User: Which sequence fits this backbone?
Protein backbone atom coordinates (compact mmCIF):
# COMPACT_ATOMS: atom_id res chain seq x y z
CA UNK A 1 0.00 0.00 0.00
CA UNK A 2 1.26 3.47 -0.87
CA UNK A 3 1.78 6.05 1.86
CA UNK A 4 -0.39 8.66 0.19
CA UNK A 5 -3.21 8.74 -2.33
CA UNK A 6 -2.06 10.12 -5.69
CA UNK A 7 -4.48 11.81 -8.11
CA UNK A 8 -3.15 11.05 -11.60
CA UNK A 9 -4.06 11.70 -15.22
CA UNK A 10 -3.82 8.28 -16.87
CA UNK A 11 -4.05 7.45 -20.56
CA UNK A 12 -6.16 4.38 -21.30
CA UNK A 13 -4.69 2.35 -24.17
CA UNK A 14 -7.87 0.32 -24.62
CA UNK A 15 -9.55 3.41 -26.12
CA UNK A 16 -7.36 3.06 -29.21
CA UNK A 17 -9.08 -0.18 -30.20
CA UNK A 18 -12.52 0.67 -28.80
CA UNK A 19 -13.09 4.46 -28.61
CA UNK A 20 -16.62 3.88 -27.28
CA UNK A 21 -15.11 3.03 -23.85
CA UNK A 22 -14.40 6.74 -23.29
CA UNK A 23 -18.17 7.48 -23.30
CA UNK A 24 -19.50 4.28 -21.71
CA UNK A 25 -21.62 4.46 -18.50
CA UNK A 26 -18.57 3.45 -16.39
CA UNK A 27 -16.08 5.88 -17.96
CA UNK A 28 -16.52 8.54 -15.23
CA UNK A 29 -15.00 6.23 -12.61
CA UNK A 30 -11.91 5.07 -14.50
CA UNK A 31 -9.63 7.70 -12.95
CA UNK A 32 -10.77 6.69 -9.47
CA UNK A 33 -10.29 2.91 -9.91
CA UNK A 34 -6.91 3.57 -11.56
CA UNK A 35 -5.73 5.54 -8.49
CA UNK A 36 -7.44 3.05 -6.12
CA UNK A 37 -5.32 0.12 -7.33
CA UNK A 38 -2.22 2.31 -7.23
CA UNK A 39 -2.95 3.24 -3.59
CA UNK A 40 -4.01 -0.17 -2.22
CA UNK A 41 -1.67 -2.36 -4.33
CA UNK A 42 -4.08 -5.31 -3.91
CA UNK A 43 -3.10 -8.95 -4.34
CA UNK A 44 -6.34 -10.07 -6.01
CA UNK A 45 -9.27 -8.24 -7.60
CA UNK A 46 -12.38 -9.64 -9.28
CA UNK A 47 -15.19 -7.96 -11.16
CA UNK A 48 -18.59 -9.51 -11.83
CA UNK A 49 -19.91 -8.22 -15.16
CA UNK A 50 -17.42 -6.91 -17.70
CA UNK A 51 -19.21 -6.44 -21.05
CA UNK A 52 -16.85 -4.29 -23.19
CA UNK A 53 -14.40 -4.00 -20.26
CA UNK A 54 -14.41 -0.27 -19.42
CA UNK A 55 -13.67 -0.85 -15.71
CA UNK A 56 -11.63 -4.03 -16.33
CA UNK A 57 -9.19 -2.35 -18.73
CA UNK A 58 -8.89 0.71 -16.44
CA UNK A 59 -7.67 -1.65 -13.69
CA UNK A 60 -5.40 -3.44 -16.18
CA UNK A 61 -3.92 -0.05 -17.11
CA UNK A 62 -3.18 0.73 -13.45
CA UNK A 63 -1.56 -2.68 -12.89
CA UNK A 64 0.55 -2.22 -16.02
CA UNK A 65 1.61 1.39 -15.37
CA UNK A 66 2.46 0.84 -11.71
CA UNK A 67 4.11 -2.57 -12.23
CA UNK A 68 1.78 -4.41 -9.83
CA UNK A 69 3.10 -7.80 -10.87
CA UNK A 70 1.80 -9.50 -7.70
CA UNK A 71 -1.81 -8.46 -8.40
CA UNK A 72 -4.08 -11.04 -10.07
CA UNK A 73 -7.16 -9.58 -11.78
CA UNK A 74 -10.24 -11.65 -12.72
CA UNK A 75 -13.21 -10.76 -14.94
CA UNK A 76 -16.38 -12.89 -14.86
CA UNK A 77 -19.03 -12.61 -17.58
CA UNK A 78 -20.94 -14.82 -20.04
CA UNK A 79 -20.40 -12.19 -22.78
CA UNK A 80 -23.85 -12.96 -24.12
CA UNK A 81 -25.77 -10.05 -22.54
CA UNK A 82 -28.98 -9.85 -20.47
CA UNK A 83 -32.42 -8.26 -20.60
CA UNK A 84 -31.08 -4.88 -19.38
CA UNK A 85 -27.85 -4.56 -21.37
CA UNK A 86 -29.34 -6.41 -24.33
CA UNK A 87 -28.12 -9.63 -25.92
CA UNK A 88 -25.22 -9.56 -28.37
CA UNK A 89 -23.10 -11.82 -30.57
CA UNK A 90 -19.52 -13.08 -30.30
CA UNK A 91 -18.05 -9.79 -31.54
CA UNK A 92 -18.00 -8.34 -27.98
CA UNK A 93 -16.08 -11.32 -26.59
CA UNK A 94 -13.65 -11.18 -29.52
CA UNK A 95 -13.06 -7.43 -29.04
CA UNK A 96 -12.36 -7.85 -25.28
CA UNK A 97 -9.92 -10.70 -25.99
CA UNK A 98 -8.16 -8.72 -28.69
CA UNK A 99 -7.82 -5.64 -26.44
CA UNK A 100 -6.38 -7.72 -23.61
CA UNK A 101 -3.86 -9.53 -25.84
CA UNK A 102 -2.80 -6.39 -27.69
CA UNK A 103 -2.24 -3.97 -24.77
CA UNK A 104 -2.19 -6.01 -21.52
CA UNK A 105 -0.41 -9.23 -22.34
CA UNK A 106 2.01 -8.70 -19.43
CA UNK A 107 -0.81 -8.12 -16.91
CA UNK A 108 -1.77 -11.11 -14.74
CA UNK A 109 -5.46 -11.01 -15.75
CA UNK A 110 -7.93 -13.83 -16.43
CA UNK A 111 -11.24 -13.79 -18.34
CA UNK A 112 -13.71 -16.32 -16.90
CA UNK A 113 -16.59 -16.94 -19.28
CA UNK A 114 -19.22 -18.33 -16.93
CA UNK A 115 -22.05 -17.36 -14.57
CA UNK A 116 -21.23 -15.59 -11.32
CA UNK A 117 -22.40 -18.51 -9.14
CA UNK A 118 -20.19 -20.92 -11.08
CA UNK A 119 -17.17 -18.65 -10.57
CA UNK A 120 -17.85 -18.39 -6.82
CA UNK A 121 -17.22 -22.13 -6.48
CA UNK A 122 -13.69 -21.73 -7.84
CA UNK A 123 -12.39 -19.35 -5.15
CA UNK A 124 -11.81 -19.73 -1.41
CA UNK A 125 -13.38 -17.43 1.16
CA UNK A 126 -11.49 -14.28 2.09
CA UNK A 127 -9.43 -14.33 -1.14
CA UNK A 128 -10.14 -10.94 -2.72
CA UNK A 129 -9.08 -7.46 -1.65
CA UNK A 130 -11.55 -5.78 -4.04
CA UNK A 131 -14.80 -7.16 -5.49
CA UNK A 132 -16.61 -5.11 -8.15
CA UNK A 133 -20.30 -6.02 -8.71
CA UNK A 134 -21.69 -4.79 -12.04
CA UNK A 135 -23.99 -7.54 -13.33
CA UNK A 136 -27.77 -7.53 -13.72
CA UNK A 137 -29.07 -4.47 -11.84
CA UNK A 138 -32.37 -5.79 -10.49
CA UNK A 139 -32.78 -5.73 -6.72
CA UNK A 140 -32.88 -9.51 -6.52
CA UNK A 141 -29.80 -10.02 -8.73
CA UNK A 142 -27.60 -7.49 -6.86
CA UNK A 143 -28.75 -8.79 -3.49
CA UNK A 144 -27.97 -12.36 -4.56
CA UNK A 145 -24.50 -11.43 -5.91
CA UNK A 146 -23.66 -9.59 -2.69
CA UNK A 147 -24.69 -12.48 -0.43
CA UNK A 148 -22.77 -15.07 -2.53
CA UNK A 149 -19.57 -13.04 -2.89
CA UNK A 150 -19.33 -11.33 0.50
CA UNK A 151 -17.60 -14.39 2.04
CA UNK A 152 -14.98 -14.19 -0.74
CA UNK A 153 -13.92 -10.71 0.45
CA UNK A 154 -10.92 -10.50 2.75
CA UNK A 155 -10.84 -8.73 6.10
CA UNK A 156 -10.98 -4.93 5.60
CA UNK A 157 -11.67 -5.55 1.89
CA UNK A 158 -13.61 -3.21 -0.44
CA UNK A 159 -16.73 -3.86 -2.53
CA UNK A 160 -17.65 -1.63 -5.45
CA UNK A 161 -21.26 -1.37 -6.73
CA UNK A 162 -22.06 0.28 -10.07
CA UNK A 163 -25.46 1.78 -11.00
CA UNK A 164 -26.37 2.90 -7.49
CA UNK A 165 -27.69 6.22 -8.88
CA UNK A 166 -29.00 5.13 -12.28
CA UNK A 167 -31.50 7.40 -13.97
CA UNK A 168 -33.58 4.34 -14.83
CA UNK A 169 -34.16 3.62 -11.12
CA UNK A 170 -32.78 0.10 -11.21
CA UNK A 171 -33.18 -2.16 -8.18
CA UNK A 172 -29.48 -1.59 -7.51
CA UNK A 173 -30.39 1.95 -6.38
CA UNK A 174 -32.71 0.64 -3.64
CA UNK A 175 -30.30 -2.12 -2.58
CA UNK A 176 -27.47 0.40 -2.10
CA UNK A 177 -29.68 2.54 0.15
CA UNK A 178 -30.31 -0.52 2.30
CA UNK A 179 -26.58 -1.34 2.41
CA UNK A 180 -25.78 2.17 3.63
CA UNK A 181 -28.19 1.68 6.54
CA UNK A 182 -26.62 -1.68 7.41
CA UNK A 183 -22.92 -0.78 6.93
CA UNK A 184 -21.79 2.65 8.22
CA UNK A 185 -18.46 2.70 6.39
CA UNK A 186 -18.94 3.74 2.80
CA UNK A 187 -18.43 6.41 0.15
CA UNK A 188 -20.35 7.04 -3.04
CA UNK A 189 -20.13 8.79 -6.41
CA UNK A 190 -23.34 10.00 -8.02
CA UNK A 191 -22.00 10.68 -11.53
CA UNK A 192 -21.73 8.11 -14.35
CA UNK A 193 -24.75 6.16 -13.02
CA UNK A 194 -23.21 6.09 -9.54
CA UNK A 195 -20.50 4.00 -7.87
CA UNK A 196 -20.76 2.77 -4.28
CA UNK A 197 -17.61 2.06 -2.21
CA UNK A 198 -18.45 -0.24 0.70
CA UNK A 199 -16.25 -1.46 3.59
CA UNK A 200 -18.35 -4.37 4.94
CA UNK A 201 -15.54 -6.25 6.78
CA UNK A 202 -13.80 -3.76 8.99
CA UNK A 203 -13.04 -0.07 9.11
CA UNK A 204 -9.25 -0.07 8.66
CA UNK A 205 -9.38 0.67 4.93
CA UNK A 206 -12.15 3.21 5.55
CA UNK A 207 -9.99 5.04 8.09
CA UNK A 208 -7.09 5.06 5.63
CA UNK A 209 -9.40 6.71 3.11
CA UNK A 210 -10.42 9.30 5.68
CA UNK A 211 -6.80 10.02 6.57
CA UNK A 212 -6.20 10.74 2.90
CA UNK A 213 -9.14 13.19 2.94
CA UNK A 214 -10.98 11.02 0.42
CA UNK A 215 -14.27 12.78 1.18
CA UNK A 216 -12.74 15.91 -0.33
CA UNK A 217 -11.50 13.96 -3.34
CA UNK A 218 -15.00 12.76 -4.25
CA UNK A 219 -15.99 16.07 -5.94
CA UNK A 220 -12.52 16.24 -7.50
CA UNK A 221 -13.10 12.95 -9.36
CA UNK A 222 -16.62 14.08 -10.16
CA UNK A 223 -15.49 17.33 -11.78
CA UNK A 224 -12.56 15.63 -13.44
CA UNK A 225 -14.89 13.09 -15.05
CA UNK A 226 -17.24 15.88 -16.04
CA UNK A 227 -14.34 17.86 -17.53
CA UNK A 228 -13.19 14.87 -19.58
CA UNK A 229 -16.75 14.19 -20.74
CA UNK A 230 -17.25 17.84 -21.72
CA UNK A 231 -13.92 17.79 -23.55
CA UNK A 232 -15.06 14.75 -25.55
CA UNK A 233 -18.42 16.39 -26.14
CA UNK A 234 -16.77 19.58 -27.46
CA UNK A 235 -14.47 17.44 -29.63
CA UNK A 236 -17.43 15.48 -31.01
CA UNK A 237 -19.51 18.63 -31.54
CA UNK A 238 -16.61 20.27 -33.35
CA UNK A 239 -16.16 17.17 -35.51
CA UNK A 240 -19.91 17.08 -36.11
CA UNK A 241 -19.92 20.75 -37.09
CA UNK A 242 -17.03 20.11 -39.48
CA UNK A 243 -18.85 17.12 -40.95
CA UNK A 244 -22.07 19.13 -41.30
CA UNK A 245 -20.15 21.95 -42.99
CA UNK A 246 -18.50 19.47 -45.34
CA UNK A 247 -21.88 17.88 -46.05
CA UNK A 248 -23.40 21.31 -46.75
CA UNK A 249 -20.53 22.13 -49.12
CA UNK A 250 -21.00 18.77 -50.81
CA UNK A 251 -24.75 19.39 -51.08
CA UNK A 252 -24.03 22.79 -52.57
CA UNK A 253 -21.88 21.13 -55.22
CA UNK A 254 -24.58 18.52 -55.83
CA UNK A 255 -27.24 21.24 -56.14
CA UNK A 256 -25.04 23.13 -58.61
CA UNK A 257 -24.58 19.92 -60.59
CA UNK A 258 -28.33 19.29 -60.48
CA UNK A 259 -28.99 22.86 -61.67
CA UNK A 260 -26.59 22.33 -64.57
CA UNK A 261 -28.25 18.99 -65.35
CA UNK A 262 -31.72 20.59 -65.22
CA UNK A 263 -30.56 23.36 -67.56
CA UNK A 264 -29.09 20.75 -69.88
CA UNK A 265 -32.30 18.72 -69.74
CA UNK A 266 -34.39 21.80 -70.39
CA UNK A 267 -32.21 22.63 -73.39
CA UNK A 268 -32.37 19.01 -74.54
CA UNK A 269 -36.16 18.97 -74.09
CA UNK A 270 -36.43 22.17 -76.16
CA UNK A 271 -34.20 20.68 -78.86
CA UNK A 272 -36.27 17.50 -78.83
CA UNK A 273 -39.44 19.57 -79.11
CA UNK A 274 -37.98 21.49 -82.07
CA UNK A 275 -36.89 18.20 -83.65
CA UNK A 276 -40.42 16.79 -83.18
CA UNK A 277 -41.88 19.91 -84.78
CA UNK A 278 -39.51 19.50 -87.72
CA UNK A 279 -40.39 15.82 -87.95
CA UNK A 280 -44.08 16.69 -87.93
CA UNK A 281 -43.48 19.15 -90.75
CA UNK A 282 -41.42 16.56 -92.64
CA UNK A 283 -44.18 13.97 -92.14
CA UNK A 284 -46.73 16.49 -93.45
CA UNK A 285 -44.45 17.16 -96.44
CA UNK A 286 -44.08 13.42 -97.01
CA UNK A 287 -47.87 12.96 -96.81
CA UNK A 288 -48.34 15.67 -99.42
CA UNK A 289 -45.60 14.14 -101.56
CA UNK A 290 -47.18 10.68 -101.25
CA UNK A 291 -50.58 12.11 -102.21
CA UNK A 292 -49.07 13.92 -105.21
CA UNK A 293 -47.16 10.83 -106.23
CA UNK A 294 -50.32 8.77 -105.86
CA UNK A 295 -52.11 11.09 -108.25
CA UNK A 296 -49.15 11.00 -110.61
CA UNK A 297 -49.08 7.21 -110.40
CA UNK A 298 -52.79 7.13 -111.18
CA UNK A 299 -52.25 9.38 -114.21
CA UNK A 300 -49.33 7.26 -115.34
CA UNK A 301 -51.36 4.15 -114.74
CA UNK A 302 -54.20 5.53 -116.90
CA UNK A 303 -51.68 6.35 -119.61
CA UNK A 304 -50.30 2.83 -119.36
CA UNK A 305 -53.85 1.43 -119.61
CA UNK A 306 -54.49 3.48 -122.72
CA UNK A 307 -51.24 2.37 -124.29
CA UNK A 308 -51.97 -1.22 -123.33
CA UNK A 309 -55.27 -1.09 -125.16
CA UNK A 310 -53.42 0.29 -128.14
CA UNK A 311 -50.86 -2.53 -127.87
CA UNK A 312 -53.72 -5.08 -127.50
CA UNK A 313 -54.91 -4.11 -130.97
CA UNK A 314 -51.57 -5.13 -132.42
CA UNK A 315 -50.96 -8.77 -133.02
CA UNK A 316 -47.24 -8.69 -132.53
CA UNK A 317 -47.65 -6.96 -129.08
CA UNK A 318 -49.38 -9.91 -127.37
CA UNK A 319 -46.17 -11.38 -126.01
CA UNK A 320 -44.94 -7.89 -125.07
CA UNK A 321 -48.22 -7.28 -123.17
CA UNK A 322 -47.66 -10.38 -121.06
CA UNK A 323 -44.22 -9.07 -120.07
CA UNK A 324 -45.72 -5.63 -119.45
CA UNK A 325 -48.34 -7.11 -117.09
CA UNK A 326 -45.58 -8.90 -115.14
CA UNK A 327 -43.64 -5.65 -115.04
CA UNK A 328 -46.71 -3.90 -113.67
CA UNK A 329 -47.00 -6.53 -110.95
CA UNK A 330 -43.39 -6.02 -109.98
CA UNK A 331 -43.94 -2.26 -109.95
CA UNK A 332 -46.89 -2.73 -107.54
CA UNK A 333 -44.73 -4.91 -105.27
CA UNK A 334 -42.03 -2.25 -105.27
CA UNK A 335 -44.62 0.39 -104.38
CA UNK A 336 -45.72 -1.66 -101.34
CA UNK A 337 -42.17 -1.91 -100.07
CA UNK A 338 -41.52 1.80 -100.67
CA UNK A 339 -44.65 2.80 -98.73
CA UNK A 340 -43.50 0.63 -95.77
CA UNK A 341 -40.11 2.36 -95.74
CA UNK A 342 -41.53 5.91 -95.75
CA UNK A 343 -38.72 8.40 -96.52
CA UNK A 344 -36.63 5.81 -98.39
CA UNK A 345 -39.74 4.75 -100.31
CA UNK A 346 -40.25 8.28 -101.60
CA UNK A 347 -36.82 8.32 -103.23
CA UNK A 348 -37.45 4.81 -104.58
CA UNK A 349 -40.82 5.89 -105.98
CA UNK A 350 -39.19 8.85 -107.68
CA UNK A 351 -36.77 6.41 -109.37
CA UNK A 352 -39.66 4.12 -110.29
CA UNK A 353 -41.53 7.05 -111.84
CA UNK A 354 -38.47 7.78 -113.92
CA UNK A 355 -38.34 4.15 -115.00
CA UNK A 356 -42.02 4.21 -115.90
CA UNK A 357 -41.53 7.40 -117.83
CA UNK A 358 -38.74 5.73 -119.79
CA UNK A 359 -41.02 2.71 -120.31
CA UNK A 360 -43.75 5.01 -121.64
CA UNK A 361 -41.26 6.62 -124.02
CA UNK A 362 -40.22 3.14 -125.17
CA UNK A 363 -43.83 2.14 -125.54
CA UNK A 364 -44.50 5.26 -127.62
CA UNK A 365 -41.72 4.23 -129.98
CA UNK A 366 -43.14 0.71 -130.08
CA UNK A 367 -46.60 2.13 -130.91
CA UNK A 368 -45.13 4.05 -133.85
CA UNK A 369 -43.43 0.87 -135.02
CA UNK A 370 -46.65 -1.10 -134.58
CA UNK A 371 -48.63 1.53 -136.54
CA UNK A 372 -46.31 0.99 -139.48
CA UNK A 373 -46.86 -2.77 -139.22
CA UNK A 374 -50.69 -2.58 -138.80
CA UNK A 375 -51.36 -2.89 -142.50
CA UNK A 376 -49.18 -5.96 -142.78
CA UNK A 377 -50.65 -7.60 -139.71
CA UNK A 378 -54.35 -6.96 -140.45
CA UNK A 379 -54.85 -10.51 -141.70
CA UNK A 380 -53.26 -11.89 -138.58
CA UNK A 381 -55.79 -10.03 -136.31
CA UNK A 382 -58.49 -12.64 -136.85
CA UNK A 383 -56.20 -15.48 -135.92
CA UNK A 384 -54.99 -13.64 -132.92
CA UNK A 385 -58.42 -12.50 -131.76
CA UNK A 386 -58.81 -15.61 -129.64
CA UNK A 387 -55.42 -15.00 -128.14
CA UNK A 388 -56.47 -11.41 -127.38
CA UNK A 389 -59.54 -12.73 -125.56
CA UNK A 390 -57.30 -14.91 -123.41
CA UNK A 391 -55.00 -11.96 -122.75
CA UNK A 392 -58.05 -9.88 -121.76
CA UNK A 393 -58.82 -12.50 -119.10
CA UNK A 394 -55.26 -12.29 -117.88
CA UNK A 395 -55.53 -8.50 -117.75
CA UNK A 396 -58.72 -8.82 -115.70
CA UNK A 397 -56.81 -11.02 -113.24
CA UNK A 398 -54.07 -8.44 -113.08
CA UNK A 399 -56.72 -5.75 -112.47
CA UNK A 400 -57.85 -7.75 -109.42
CA UNK A 401 -54.26 -7.84 -108.24
CA UNK A 402 -54.05 -4.08 -108.73
CA UNK A 403 -57.20 -3.65 -106.62
CA UNK A 404 -55.60 -5.79 -103.91
CA UNK A 405 -52.56 -3.54 -104.09
CA UNK A 406 -54.86 -0.56 -103.66
CA UNK A 407 -56.17 -2.19 -100.44
CA UNK A 408 -52.55 -2.66 -99.31
CA UNK A 409 -51.92 1.01 -100.01
CA UNK A 410 -54.92 1.82 -97.81
CA UNK A 411 -53.41 -0.34 -95.01
CA UNK A 412 -50.14 1.56 -95.37
CA UNK A 413 -52.06 4.79 -95.01
CA UNK A 414 -53.65 3.49 -91.80
CA UNK A 415 -50.14 2.60 -90.54
CA UNK A 416 -49.06 6.18 -91.23
CA UNK A 417 -52.07 7.38 -89.19
CA UNK A 418 -51.00 5.07 -86.35
CA UNK A 419 -47.51 6.55 -86.45
CA UNK A 420 -49.06 10.00 -86.19
CA UNK A 421 -50.88 8.87 -83.03
CA UNK A 422 -47.57 7.51 -81.65
CA UNK A 423 -45.96 10.90 -82.28
CA UNK A 424 -48.84 12.54 -80.41
CA UNK A 425 -48.23 10.11 -77.52
CA UNK A 426 -44.56 11.09 -77.54
CA UNK A 427 -45.68 14.75 -77.26
CA UNK A 428 -47.70 13.81 -74.16
CA UNK A 429 -44.66 11.98 -72.72
CA UNK A 430 -42.54 15.08 -73.24
CA UNK A 431 -45.18 17.16 -71.44
CA UNK A 432 -45.09 14.63 -68.57
CA UNK A 433 -41.28 14.96 -68.46
CA UNK A 434 -41.70 18.72 -68.23
CA UNK A 435 -44.00 18.22 -65.21
CA UNK A 436 -41.43 15.85 -63.69
CA UNK A 437 -38.73 18.49 -64.13
CA UNK A 438 -41.00 20.97 -62.37
CA UNK A 439 -41.44 18.50 -59.46
CA UNK A 440 -37.65 18.06 -59.27
CA UNK A 441 -37.28 21.83 -59.08
CA UNK A 442 -39.72 21.90 -56.13
CA UNK A 443 -37.73 19.12 -54.43
CA UNK A 444 -34.55 21.16 -54.88
CA UNK A 445 -36.30 24.15 -53.30
CA UNK A 446 -37.27 21.93 -50.32
CA UNK A 447 -33.62 20.80 -50.04
CA UNK A 448 -32.63 24.44 -49.99
CA UNK A 449 -34.99 24.95 -47.03
CA UNK A 450 -33.47 21.92 -45.26
CA UNK A 451 -29.99 23.33 -45.84
CA UNK A 452 -31.08 26.62 -44.29
CA UNK A 453 -32.33 24.66 -41.25
CA UNK A 454 -28.95 22.89 -41.04
CA UNK A 455 -27.22 26.31 -41.22
CA UNK A 456 -29.40 27.50 -38.33
CA UNK A 457 -28.53 24.35 -36.30
CA UNK A 458 -24.81 24.88 -36.94
CA UNK A 459 -25.14 28.51 -35.83
CA UNK A 460 -26.78 27.32 -32.58
CA UNK A 461 -23.94 24.81 -32.05
CA UNK A 462 -21.38 27.55 -32.68
CA UNK A 463 -23.19 29.70 -30.09
CA UNK A 464 -22.99 26.84 -27.56
CA UNK A 465 -19.26 26.21 -28.11
CA UNK A 466 -18.13 29.37 -26.18
CA UNK A 467 -20.52 28.43 -23.34
CA UNK A 468 -19.06 24.93 -23.18
CA UNK A 469 -15.56 26.35 -23.27
CA UNK A 470 -16.48 28.66 -20.38
CA UNK A 471 -17.83 25.69 -18.41
CA UNK A 472 -14.62 23.77 -19.13
CA UNK A 473 -12.57 26.74 -17.92
CA UNK A 474 -14.66 26.92 -14.74
CA UNK A 475 -14.19 23.17 -14.20
CA UNK A 476 -10.45 23.57 -14.70
CA UNK A 477 -10.39 26.40 -12.16
CA UNK A 478 -12.41 24.31 -9.69
CA UNK A 479 -9.99 21.38 -10.10
CA UNK A 480 -7.04 23.72 -9.58
CA UNK A 481 -8.78 25.13 -6.48
CA UNK A 482 -9.40 21.63 -5.10
CA UNK A 483 -5.80 20.71 -5.70
CA UNK A 484 -4.63 23.89 -3.92
CA UNK A 485 -7.03 23.18 -1.03
CA UNK A 486 -5.72 19.63 -0.85
CA UNK A 487 -2.13 20.83 -0.63
CA UNK A 488 -3.10 23.40 1.99
CA UNK A 489 -4.96 20.79 4.03
CA UNK A 490 -1.97 18.45 3.80
CA UNK A 491 0.30 21.25 5.08
CA UNK A 492 -2.20 22.03 7.87
CA UNK A 493 -2.40 18.36 8.75
CA UNK A 494 1.43 18.12 8.93
CA UNK A 495 1.57 21.23 11.18
CA UNK A 496 -1.18 19.90 13.45
CA UNK A 497 0.59 16.56 13.67
CA UNK A 498 3.83 18.25 14.76
CA UNK A 499 2.03 20.37 17.31
CA UNK A 500 0.26 17.30 18.62
CA UNK A 501 3.62 15.51 19.03
CA UNK A 502 5.06 18.48 20.92
CA UNK A 503 1.97 18.57 23.14
CA UNK A 504 2.26 14.88 23.95
CA UNK A 505 5.94 15.30 24.81
CA UNK A 506 5.13 18.19 27.09
CA UNK A 507 2.31 16.25 28.79
CA UNK A 508 4.42 13.17 29.40
CA UNK A 509 7.31 15.28 30.73
CA UNK A 510 5.18 17.03 33.34
CA UNK A 511 3.82 14.90 36.18
CA UNK A 512 1.85 17.82 37.54
CA UNK A 513 0.06 18.35 34.25
CA UNK A 514 -0.70 14.63 33.82
CA UNK A 515 -2.18 14.51 37.36
CA UNK A 516 -4.22 17.67 36.96
CA UNK A 517 -5.56 16.89 33.48
CA UNK A 518 -5.85 13.12 33.73
CA UNK A 519 -9.64 13.18 33.62
CA UNK A 520 -9.48 15.14 30.36
CA UNK A 521 -6.59 13.26 28.81
CA UNK A 522 -8.10 9.80 29.34
CA UNK A 523 -11.03 10.27 26.91
CA UNK A 524 -8.61 11.59 24.36
CA UNK A 525 -6.56 8.44 24.67
CA UNK A 526 -9.74 6.42 24.18
CA UNK A 527 -10.68 8.46 21.17
CA UNK A 528 -7.21 7.95 19.85
Assistant:
Amino acid sequence: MKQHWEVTDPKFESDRLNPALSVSPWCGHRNFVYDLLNFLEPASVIELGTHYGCSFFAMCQSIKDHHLSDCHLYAVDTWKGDEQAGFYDESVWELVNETKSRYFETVNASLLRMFFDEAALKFRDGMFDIIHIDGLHTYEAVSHDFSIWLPKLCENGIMLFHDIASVKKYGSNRFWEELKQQYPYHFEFEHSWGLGILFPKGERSFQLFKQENFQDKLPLYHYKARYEYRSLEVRDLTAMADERFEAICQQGKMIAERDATIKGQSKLAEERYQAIQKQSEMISDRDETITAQGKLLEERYEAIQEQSRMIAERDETITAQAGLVEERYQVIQNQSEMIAQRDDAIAAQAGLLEERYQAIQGQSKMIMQRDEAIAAQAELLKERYQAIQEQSGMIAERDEVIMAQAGLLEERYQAIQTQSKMIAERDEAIAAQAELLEERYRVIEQQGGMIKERDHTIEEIEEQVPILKAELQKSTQLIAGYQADQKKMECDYSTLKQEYSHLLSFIHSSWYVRKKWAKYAMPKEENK
Remarks:
- DSSP finds 14 helices and nine strands in the chain.
- Residues 380-509 form the longest helix (130 residues).
- The first strand starts at residue 44 and ends at 48.
